[in-house]
């Protein structure tokens, strides 16, 4: 049985047709510039906050040892959210070492970073208890220069860590579907007040119709 012979033209009468190779592959050329089409995405940046809104409290240096405290990025109405990276800041008063949390002792219960949906919860990390636990969220090598000066004031210390979510959840990161209860959460399960500054900024984009 023979196949159907179809030609795909440019639609402008210029006799430009799509080409198929002997291996039955359609020949395409990646354009070096974007197409003339309506913009369907916009940049997204927001702190993890205690109520999920941009103006909410983003200070995660709280005591969640008795009652856990959630800071999160939620889904929203009207847009799909794609979270591609997280930037974590931990600041403190005196020089520290990786096995501590901030400049205090390591946490016992730690902090839980997770994705939540109606299907349940998925851990990104089940128990961040020390500085080195946070370091290990990234693929970047940690050197002796990990500790920064002047994070909150001239004599303060701290560090920044960037987590690329596209390495664990595909090229678009973690998707929060429009109009759902999906969210990415940092759950404080311990006394994290040793950190003078402890917050996370989420980066990504929102896609709309």
Ordered list of secondary-structure elements with their pairings:
Elements lengths: L40 E7 L21 E6 L5 E13 L18 E7 L2 E9 L2 H5 L12 E2 L7 E8 L1 H4 L4 E3 L6 E6 L8 E11 L2
Antiparallel strand pairs: 1-10, 2-9, 3-7, 3-8, 3-10, 4-5, 4-9, 6-7
Task: Please provide a written account of the structure.
The chain has about 210 residues and is mostly beta strands. It is about 5% helix and about 35% strand. The chain contains two helices and ten strands. The strands form two sheets. Strands 1, 3, 6, 7, 8 and 10 form a six-stranded antiparallel β-sheet that branches. The chain has a four-stranded antiparallel β-sheet with strand order 2-9-4-5. A hairpin with a 7-residue loop joins strand 6 (about 150) and strand 7 (about 155-165). It is elongated. The model has no long low-confidence stretch (mean pLDDT about 90).
- Rg, Cα atoms, Å: 23 Å
Number of helices: 2
Order of H and E elements: EEEEEHEEHEEE
Helix content: under 10%
Please give the number of β-strands.
10
> What is the strand content?
25-35%
List unreliable stretches of 5+ residues: none
Structural class: mainly beta
User: Mean of the pLDDT scores?
Assistant: 92
Outline of the structure:
The protein has 209 residues and is mainly beta. The protein is 4% helix and 34% strand.
Q: Which key features would you list for this structure?
A:
mainly beta, four-stranded antiparallel sheet, 209 residues
């Amino acid at each position: 049985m023979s196949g159907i012979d179809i030609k795909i033209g440019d639609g402008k009468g210029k006799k430009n047709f799509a080409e198929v190779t002997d291996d039955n592959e359609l020949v395409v050329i990646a354009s070096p510039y974007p197409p003339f089409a309506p913009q369907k995405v916009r940049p997204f940046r927001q702190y993890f906050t205690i109520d999920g809104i941009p103006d909410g409290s983003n200070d995660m240096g709280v005591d969640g040892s008795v009652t856990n405290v959630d800071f999160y990025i939620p889904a929203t109405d009207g847009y799909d959210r794609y979270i591609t990276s997280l930037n974590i800041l931990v600041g403190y008063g005196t020089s520290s070492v990786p096995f501590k949390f901030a400049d205090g002792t390591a946490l016992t219960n730690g902090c839980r970073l997770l994705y939540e949906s109606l299907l349940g919860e998925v851990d990104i990390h089940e128990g961040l208890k020390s500085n080195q636990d946070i370091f290990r969220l990234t693929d970047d090598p940690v050197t002796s220069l990990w500790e920064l000066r002047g994070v909150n004031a001239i004599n303060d210390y701290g560090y920044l860590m960037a987590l690329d979510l596209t390495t664990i959840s595909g090229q678009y990161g973690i998707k929060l579907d429009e109009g759902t209860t999906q969210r990415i959460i940092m759950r404080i399960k311990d006394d994290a007040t040793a950190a003078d500054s402890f917050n996370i900024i989420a980066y990504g984009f929102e896609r709309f119709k």
